[in-house]
Amino acid sequence: MEVRIFNSADEIATACADIFSELLVTKPECVLGLATGASPVKTYTELIKRCKNGEISFSKVKTFNLDEYCDLPRDDKNSYYTFMHENLFNSVDIKEENVNILDGNAADAEKEAKEFDEKIENAGGIDIQLLGIGTNGHIGFNEPADSFSDGTFKVKLTDSTIKSNSIYFDDDSMPRYALTMGINSIMKAKKIVLIATGESKADAIKATIDGEVTPQVPASVLKNHPDAILLIDKAAAKLL
Ligand code: F6R
Q1: Closest Cα to residue 224, out of 5, 59, 1?
Q2: CA 111 to chain centre
Q3: What is the Å distance from ligand 1's center to 132 Cα?
Q4: What is the pLDDT of residues 217-235, one digit of tens each?
Q5: Closest ligand 1 atom number to CA of residue 198
């Protein structure tokens, strides 16, 4: 696992966009694993700028998002479907049919999850998976647990995640369940890039980098990946 420490979130966005741009140029029909939340927003803004400049194109790209809330309409302002369209897809030349976001309202969540994993396999697997990290060390919505999860599945969110993400919801309407790629689905990606900024991530980053590999700190599994890069700022690196 490679760790790169930066002065600011802007520097991280440039470095992360460089990694994605290199792939987009060398393999225009690549498969991207994407994340939502605050961490990737500046990277998406930088990728939009480069796409508008003609440096990169998403016209042949397929994307798979890590996760989606359950029981939230797809067009809700807090759905990850809406987030991805507002923060990236509406501003680049991607084809809507190449965008894959889990349906958190599927009547049969197990079937939805299985079909999602199959679609990733059929697309040839994910070339780069982008990740953020929860303050509890979660990746995707793989919460601290007794064992590492396998493929995509429906998960009950922990109190810590509900507390962190509730700030985006008007009242107590934050969903309690989500569909998420499993740890094994994430680990199958050829390359993984994790972004962490701010002091609130310092404990999780310390446990990920300096601690043992344990499902109690889901991100620690990245130490077992042959090509995982952590892009973190000085505040997130403060306890290292
Ligand atoms: C988002 C996701 C989550 C976030 C994590 C960090 O798709 O899977 O694991 O990456 O909760 O969120 P932010 O970036 O908002 O701090």
Answers
A1: 1
A2: 22
A3: 5
A4: 999 999 999 999 999 999 9
A5: 16
